[in-house]
Write a structure and sequence with these properties.
This protein has 1 helix and 3 strands; from the N terminus they run βαββ. By secondary structure, the chain is of the alpha/beta class. The longest helix has 10 residues. The mean pLDDT is 77.
Length: 66
């Protein structure tokens, strides 16, 4: 059985992908925070990167409020 790491596993796509893969792979959700020059070692066969900056409520443009 493959060992799979998923970043963004709590999002819409990540949660559905985990449900799909749970019978085929040993899953490891990743919590990723951006830290410049950070090195991460992951002992997995497959890494699926789905994390993204989806919501930044401090930077709402005036155009989006119209």
């Amino acid at each position: 059985m493959r060992k799979t790491a998923i970043s963004g596993s709590s999002g819409f796509v990540g949660t559905n992908l985990q449900d799909y893969l749970k019978n085929y792979s040993e899953l490891k959700p990743l919590s990723v925070r951006f830290i410049p020059n950070q090195k991460i070692e992951i002992d997995k066969d497959v890494i699926i990167h789905l994390a993204g900056k989806a919501h930044d409520l401090k930077k709402v443009s005036k155009q989006s409020l119209k």
